[in-house]
Amino acid sequence: MFTFFTLPSRRRGVGDQENGLDRILLTPYLSIAEDELDFQAIRSQGAGGQNVNKVSSAVQMRFDIRASSLPEECKQRLLCVRDDRLSKDGVFIIKAQAYRSQLQNKQAAVERLRDVVGQALAPQRARIATKPSYSSRQKRMEHKRQRSDVKSMRRAPLV
Predict the structure, then answer these.
(1) Which of 13, 66, 97, 122 is the most buried (most CB within 10 A)?
(2) Could you tell me where the Basic residues compositional bias lies (predicted)?
(3) What is the 3-state secondary structure (H, E, C) of the chain?
(4) Which one of 3.30.479.30, 3.30.160.20, 3.40.630.30, 1.20.1250.20 gives the CATH number of domain 37-122?
(5) Max intra-chain CA distance, the chain
(6) What does each C-alpha distance from 95 to 8, 20, 63, 85 come to in angstroms?
(7) Could you give the CA distance from residue 2 to residue 110 in angstroms, rounded to a whole number?
(8) Is 0.70 topped by the overall pTM?
């Protein structure tokens, strides 16, 4: 869900947003300040009767990767992600409109960002070779030809 955690040992007051007290946990070891995410309430698409035209319950979340407080390596891996939601300027735009509540849509957008970050930062699995290489196929064919020659020499000559 939408997890905030506040650092203890300080009284909440003016300027706490800039000091990074309200943070959103992306991975167990990585968090960003809440003010790095830009939320905008928009009207949902699709059916919904009169209510859909009156209420802005959908949420569009923008996350500027280049301007974020993430480590450089994380930024580079996120910028290399092939995703239609990533703009050329390095801004992730996530739209959530599954719920009728704006808060639930906000939580869903943050959850999707968590998924994207988790996948981008996950270690790449080593590729398992599934097809024999060209040289191994050539060696195999050469060995077969040699065995064929040996066996053909054992045959009785044709008279």
Answers:
(1) 97
(2) 137-146
(3) CCCEECCCCCCCCCCHHHHCCCEEEEECCEEEEHHHEEEEEECCCCCCCCHHHHCCCEEEEEEECCCCCCCHHHHHHHHCCCCCCECCCCEEEEEECCCCCHHHHHHHHHHHHHHHHHHHHCCCCCCCCCCCCHHHHHHHHHHHHHHHHHHHHHCCCCC
(4) 3.30.160.20
(5) 107
(6) 33, 25, 12, 9
(7) 7
(8) no
Phi, psi for 30 (deg, rounded to 5)? -135, 130
The two tokens of residue 57 are: 């319950």
